Inverse folding.
């Protein structure tokens, strides 16, 4: 069995929050409330568990993380002051803050199981789940399963140890209001940023570089 870290790192990033919230609405919400009764019992139970686990992860995040979302990365708005802390580079530059969010291995594995099931339904021949996915996707014109995949992969990035230690006691979870990274921690931050933005991008260089620019 694969073991996932107790903590994940989540940036105060509107692009990420948009994609994370889209896992619930329209995808999991629609499957749960509109299609569950038409699915085989094992598929319905997998979706039910995934929806609950998504909610557990959302509840563990700082509440202010959802203050702003966006549908187009090129329209990203400047950051505002939040209820969190301020993160600084070794030179004193303000960075996008990262938050240590505690999750259970069960939450990640349940979401992974659900994603695998949805991927198989998309590549299979017909069936009620494939039909439900097509119905949900049509008015949105978005690849919702691919979005699910990218968000989950980003959440599974192992948090760099020194970087995680530097932010674990930062507000709002802890009393620390200002965190300054040293050179080694900042190198971990840059590597994490690049991996995070790459996994969330649609595979297009322009989308990746525009997202990454929010951190610079």
């Amino acid at each position: 069995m694969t073991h996932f870290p107790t903590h994940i790192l989540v940036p105060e990033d509107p692009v990420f929050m948009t994609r994370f919230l889209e896992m619930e609405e329209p995808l999991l919400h629609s499957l749960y409330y509109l299609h569950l009764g038409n699915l085989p019992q094992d598929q319905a139970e997998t979706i039910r568990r995934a929806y609950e686990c998504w909610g557990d992860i959302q509840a563990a995040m700082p509440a202010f993380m959802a203050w702003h979302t966006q549908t187009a990365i090129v329209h990203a708005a400047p950051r505002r002051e939040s209820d969190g802390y301020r993160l600084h580079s070794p030179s004193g530059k303000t960075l996008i803050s990262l938050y240590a969010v505690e999750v259970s291995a069960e939450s990640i594995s349940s979401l992974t199981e659900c994603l695998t099931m949805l991927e198989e339904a998309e590549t299979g021949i017909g069936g009620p789940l494939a039909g439900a996915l097509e119905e949900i996707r049509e008015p949105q014109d978005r690849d919702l399963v691919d979005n699910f995949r990218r968000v989950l992969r980003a959440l599974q990035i192992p948090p760099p140890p020194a970087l995680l230690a530097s932010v674990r006691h930062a507000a709002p979870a802890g009393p620390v209001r200002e965190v300054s990274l040293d050179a080694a921690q900042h190198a971990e931050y840059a590597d994490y940023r690049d991996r995070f933005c790459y996994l969330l991008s649609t595979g297009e260089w322009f989308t990746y570089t525009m997202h990454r620019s929010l951190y610079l």
Summary: The two ends are 38 Å apart (CA to CA). Strands lie at 7-11, 86-88, 94-95, 98-102, 178-180. The chain is about 55% helix and 10% strand.
